[in-house]
Design brief:
By secondary structure, the chain is an alpha+beta fold. 47% of the residues lie in helices and 15% in strands. The strands form two sheets. It has a four-stranded mixed sheet, with helices on both faces. Strands 5-6 form a two-stranded antiparallel ribbon.
Amino acid sequence: IAMMDIETTGLDIYSDRVVEMACVVLEGRSIARTFSTRVNPGVPIPAEASRIHGITDEAVAHAPSFAEALAGLVDCVGSEAAIVIPAAFNHAFDKPFLSVESVRHCGIVPWFLRSRLGWLDPYVYGRRAFKYDPGKKQLVDIARLCGAKTGDAHTAEGDCMTALRCLFRLAEHKSGGELLIPARYDVAIERQEMFAAQESASMLDYIGRKRAEKQARGVTT
């Protein structure tokens, strides 16, 4: 499993940039290799982003470019022939962000960023496992609910380690008498996609009901 994480200048994949990336690769339960680097985004880092991850313009002034950093990430993940399973906490953000940055700076997309390839995601499984627990479901929240140790929050490598611990805890979690995360990779991705689709449908239904209630109140008043 290659758990990846990035820190960025913001949330817009088309206008914002990566300022830090990391990867921790596990073989079994042992760390095989790690990679972590700051990245010079080539644009100013907004103060609000720096307040979250602590990375400033000065901190990345002499950091490698995205293209240089990506080469290190690719080396850490390994070749497609090595049968490495990519993963990230909330991969719906990290994967497309890295993909767009790869095209922008390198003109290519590494094999693990191909759109058809599923990434294991403890965020999706964590939201499913603890959907009836109140509060947010960010990485530190899922870690707390899992009983997993947290690393340095909002550092890419620290978040990779925390996400891996969450993934292992969730892999031991049972729902309806069976393991939440199937042992087979392809089945695990299918179930993960089903959970994500169900949550999206539920959210759309909730928004629709709230809108209808608001409109009904407007009519009655």
